[in-house]
Amino acid sequence: MGEKEISRRDFVRAGAGVVAGAALGGAAAAQAAPAVDTSKILNYNPKMGYRRFGKTGVMISEVSLGGHWKNRDGGRYWSSFPNDNPPPDVQMNRNEVWAKSAELGINYYDITTAGEAAIYGRCAKQTGIKLHIGYSDHILCMRNPANRTVDKLMREIDEGLKRLLVDQMFLWRPQADMGGNHTDAEIEAVIACYEKAKQQGKVEYLGMSTHNRTWVAHVLDKYGKHFHGFVFMLGVHDVPGVPSEKGNLFDVVKREDIGTVGLKPFHGNSYFSAAIREARKEGREPDLNRVAVLGLTKILEAFPHLTATIPGMTTPDEVENNVKASYDRANKLSEAERREVQRLADASLQNLPWDYAWIREQAAV
Fold first, then answer.
1. Which residues lie across from 61 on neighbouring strands?
2. pLDDT score of 33
3. Which of 77, 149, 193, 277 is the most buried (most CB within 10 A)?
4. Residues ≥6 apart with Cβ < 8 Å to 83
């Protein structure tokens, strides 16, 4: 798919999209957005929408790059490489996706494994192209009780910097337990580690990742002044007002001016599996490119205070397709399209693979 197809529907003035994105992200959403200096936006593309990453003031592409991608066997991600050395063909694939992402205006990527840190560090080095980093390591992170000290958390940062081939990362967002389940003392250890790393020039901003949005609201209620971003599951199934208005996560996010990144927009691949099943039942070929764009568009429309959604993308074609959710944002979903997305999303939750069954539980939180 080329540039002509991406821009098949004319879009409004280039600068208007950026200013609109600024108005949607952060605590000042209800106020008139100030003019945005697009020269300061990394990988700026006038067709892409950008949203303010909370109190950092950094403008992030509303469609960004998730760290996972399909491996040769169709698996959902590469967790590691021998000696942190990716095979040449795998590195070439990531370099192509990396370069295409930056060309189309994507400026943030979010990673959670040693393999992703190693390969994307080489992407930046080999292509000379930069994206803002959101980093954690699923082995070294605080999900393991043994890693819940300042020294062990600092090891996660140091190992990440080594693999990423950088001196400083944009966002350290340690992976908490999927359900939260951390004591306040453990959160305070994260904050203490960040302050130490920040002083040493290793980390610019502090975030955290979990799949329990109620717990996110608790952490930000008590420690919001220390955090700049949160990464949590937000997918095609979600609708505004869930969780309930009492303690609603986005109320806290707006109050504390926190950047937000939505994980698992497609429930892994289950959303696409639902689309394939429906198409086969009706005797037609599934249009997965179309349903991907509809799903991402639904998320961006429904959650204006979400900074970015981060689909995993395996090929440059997938990048070209998925950015349409932002490029074509002047054209809102029809009611029929919203119902289609919700129907597929509901079917997706009912047919999750065993290793993603937790999505069903967290989707209701």
1. 50
2. 59
3. 193
4. none
